Amino acid sequence: MDKLVKVTCPQCSHVMEQRSSKVRKNTTCICPKCGHFFLPEEG
Fold this sequence. Notes:
Layout: E1 4-8, E2 15-19, H1 20-24, E3 29-30, E4 37-38
Antiparallel strand pairs: 1-2, 3-4
């Protein structure tokens, strides 16, 4: 079962929750607040 982990947007510092499997695979995240594309390791 996937746990939710907190990821912070490097552009606007918005904190969102992502599934741990997405973070492990280093899938590109899109900030729901500012629309910035980033990798979880950048946040």
